[in-house]
């Protein structure tokens, strides 16, 4: 308990350094701080509860092993999210091609949808968005998850995905354009899609 208490106020980068130097409490504190957002990225990117759980486990294992190679040129959050996105991409490459049926972690998937007075309708909307995301290319999906759903600035998303900011803008614009016909029925019902309109951020080409 004493060791766990001693790391609570330590900055992320120092925690990672402490872990690399053998502190038995430091990595657990990092997991505690960042698990929920990393889980949200994995679940929204993969659209499948079991796949997301496996990707998150792979990501934390990779981070645990790679801590000593962290260069400190980015925020630890950016570094961790880069690892989880790569873990998701690895699972997409490895899994057999099949339709994804989102199992739907309620707390996470419902947060994709705008607030709605009808909880059932909000949950159905979040499933619609999640299913539609699985039908666009992974690179566009990852950019939309980070920018439109997780609230990353374009520059920060570019650091996570290790591409120029213009590429993020292009991927978001193309992803939104692909989502528009898939989610058109939601607009007809007077409800938002949970993803920003195709008009925003759409001026850059890859």
User: Low-confidence stretches at least 5 residues in length (pLDDT < 50)?
Assistant: 1-5, 97-125, 190-194, 196-206
* Shape designation: elongated
Biggest beta sheet attributes: none
Please tell me the overall pLDDT.
Answer: 77
SSE string, helices as H and strands as E = HHHHHHHHHHH
- Assembly type: single chain
Share of helix, binned: 55-70%
Class by alpha and beta content: mainly alpha
Number of strands: 0
* Termini gap: 51 Å
Approximate strand percentage:
under 5%
User: What is the radius of gyration?
Assistant: 18 Å
Please tally the helical runs, counting DSSP H or I stretches of 4 or more residues: 11
Could you outline the blueprint of secondary structure elements for this entry?
Layout: H1 2-6, H2 12-20, H3 26-46, H4 49-66, H5 76-94, H6 106-109, H7 119-133, H8 138-149, H9 154-161, H10 165-182, H11 184-188
Helix pairs in contact: 2-3, 3-4, 3-5, 4-5, 5-9, 8-9, 8-10, 9-10
Summarize this structure briefly.
Helices cover 65% and strands 0% of the residues. It is mainly α and 206 residues long.
Please characterize this protein's 3D structure.
The chain is mostly helical. The protein contains eleven helices and no strands. The chain has helices spanning 2-6, 12-20, 26-46, 49-66, 76-94, 106-109, 119-133, 138-149, 154-161, 165-182, 184-188. Helix 8 (138-149) crosses helix 10. The termini are far apart.
């Amino acid at each position: 308990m004493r060791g766990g208490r001693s790391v609570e106020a330590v900055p992320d980068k120092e925690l990672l350094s402490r872990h690399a130097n053998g502190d038995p409490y430091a990595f657990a504190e990092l997991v505690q701080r960042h698990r929920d957002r990393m889980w949200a990225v994995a679940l929204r990117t993969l659209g499948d509860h079991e796949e997301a759980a496996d990707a998150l486990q792979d990501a934390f294992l990779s981070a645990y092993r790679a801590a000593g190679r962290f260069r400190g040129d980015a925020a630890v959050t950016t570094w961790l999210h880069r690892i989880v996105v790569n873990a998701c991409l690895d699972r997409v490459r490895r899994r057999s091609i099949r339709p994804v049926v989102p199992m739907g972690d309620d707390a996470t998937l419902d947060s994709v949808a705008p607030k709605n007075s009808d909880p059932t309708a909000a949950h159905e909307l979040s499933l619609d968005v999640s299913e539609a995301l699985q039908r666009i290319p992974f690179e566009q999906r990852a950019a939309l998850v980070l920018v439109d759903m997780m609230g990353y600035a374009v520059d920060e998303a570019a650091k996570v995905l290790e591409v120029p900011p213009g590429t993020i803008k292009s991927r978001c614009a193309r992803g939104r354009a692909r989502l528009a016909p898939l989610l058109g029925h939601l607009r007809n019902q007077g409800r938002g899609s949970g993803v920003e309109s195709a008009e925003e951020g759409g001026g850059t080409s890859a």
